[in-house]
Amino acid sequence: MGYFLKWLTRWGILAATATFLIKTLSDNWKDVRSIQLQPDAWVYVGLAIAIAVAAQLCSAMVWGSILELIRHPVSRRWAIVTLLKNAPAKYLPGSVWHLHGRVKAAERQGISVEFATLSVMLEPLFLIAGALGLALWHRSSSSPLLLGLACILVAVHPRILNRLWKTWRRSRGKEATAGALRRYPLSVLMGAMAFMALRSLTFICIVLAFTPLTWSMLQPLMSGFSLAWLLSIIIPAPGGIGVFETSAVNVLNAYLSPGLLLGCVAIYRLVMISSELIGAGMACLITEGEVDLAHQGRFI
Q: I want to staple 28 with a disulfide (CB 3.0 to 4.6 A). Which of 14, 87, 258, 278 is the partner?
């Protein structure tokens, strides 16, 4: 019954967002038909794909840094190749198969399933913190966003997280002599901010393919994009499909017309899928390497 309700919720949200997008497209069809690509649009699209791939590399670095912080250091190459290979699986029903693949890959390298699972659970938490930080760039007075960011920053403090980790292990009848985190994950939080900045720049490049932008528009667009991306992570839907598009249209309609936004989010989705497929293809040509056990806690 629980599985059925979860399935119904996920696909119900997807159906609702699809309905909203179809209605918005219908209401703004003339606006959509009137948008035109800029003469150098393909340059911006190519740049968007390159930045999107760079964002994936940044995400892999964040994951690798988390593994180092929880006393399971890995090489950069292994983290990057493993994440890129599994990234396209996020679009499968359930939205967890890319995480499952990374946990299994970590297990094959000798990392316990508990710590591997902890790493992939902490990663989206840090990325959400990065999205909140960037969203607050233009919404500094938004209390819910500030509260959410404050809660995450407190929750990932070693004193808090390690206590929760030890309590959880004791509840499972296991030894809890060592905590999970070695120190406060400031570097991971900075990496998460860099990831969100790259994702935002990817979207801005797509917008530039359709219309020129002034410098004053960059801040609200990056902030609004981060909020839309955040909602697509929090609200359950396969790969965030539909939720991001709906959120972006609602959040950014004060800065861009609905027709232009619909065109931008459609191209953005194609760019993201293309970049993930390109990344996975490149990763398949590279050996994963081995977990680095010789450096005792250094992420190299």
A: 258
